[in-house]
Amino acid sequence: MKDESELVALVAEKFKLNGWVVIVSRPSQNRIYFIESSGRRKAPDFIALKQGRLFVAEAKCRSADLFSAGRGRLSDVSSLRELALESVGIPFLGRVARRLASLQIRHDGIESMEIGLIAASSLSRMHADASDDLMIIIADAGAEVGASAQFNW
């Protein structure tokens, strides 16, 4: 996989084929974001909706990069876990709802939010164990897209 944009585009196609409405499918977008505990804005790379299920994910070509924190920044994994906090998740869901309305996408509401990771390489055993509460999507170089067992397409 050349870059995150290619990775996210490939995953978006798989989601669309499985009946999802893809809301965001590009790295570095800034329309739908949440505020991390550090005060920094975080805009997920991928957001999709299907039958009340909202899937929110960060994407990296190298899976290990999802777990790396930069100077003064949380790792993507830590950042996404903050979405489970009511104080972070509720304003984020409001932004998602406003974006759906602006795109004139009809839906019956958001009933649940699933957090996930998208990578072009498999997770190491250590990273897999550290992320067993997240949905994992792997898109390999052969353009095959697979998901962790607990993910329901």
Q: Can you walk through the features of this model?
A:
This protein is α/β, with parallel strands linked by helices and 153 residues long. It has one domain (4-147): Trna Endonuclease, Chain: A, domain 1. Helices cover 28% and strands 25% of the residues. It has a 6-stranded mixed β-sheet, sandwiched between helices. It has a two-stranded antiparallel sheet with strand order 2-3. It is globular. The mean pLDDT is 89.
What descriptors fit this protein?
153 residues, two-stranded antiparallel sheet, globular, alpha/beta, single chain, 4 helices, Trna Endonuclease, Chain: A, domain 1, 6-stranded mixed sheet
| Level-2 CATH architecture | 3-Layer(aba) Sandwich
Profile the largest sheet.
Answer: 6 strands, mixed
Structural class: alpha/beta
Instruction: Provide the succession of SSEs.
Output: HEEEEEHHEHEE
As for the CATH topology, it is Trna Endonuclease, Chain: A, domain 1
Helical residues, percent: 25-40%
Q: Count helical runs.
A: 4
Strand tally, please?
Answer: 8
Strand content: 15-25%
Sheet with most strands: strand arrangement: 1-4-5-6-7-8
**Quaternary arrangement of the chains shown?**
single chain
